[in-house]
Amino acid sequence: MTAASPLIGRLRQRVTLQRESGVPDTGGGYALAWTDLATVWGAVEALTGRERLQAAALESTVTHRMLLRARTDIDAAMRVVWRGRAFNIRAVMDRTGRDRLTELLVEEGGAV
Fold it and tell me: Contact, 59 vs 109, CB < 8 A?
């Protein structure tokens, strides 16, 4: 049994990785939209939450940690959708140092 095996058993949530790309619009040009890259099993854990007043609007931010089987096609320009909620990727890390799990630090939130 490898060191990562117990962690892989925690991957019970379905998460969708998305990348922003140009899609044709009705005016003959392109508009930016989020397109699905892959739907994978992951573990999701809430880390912190905060509210603050920014530019006369209450802003709420929640950070999470997501663990996925190792992937090399994820970067901070992407986002993750989990249970209908969109999370911006802030950091991508190799969880075990052996390319077995990818750890994502993600952030959800904005003006309320």
Answer: yes
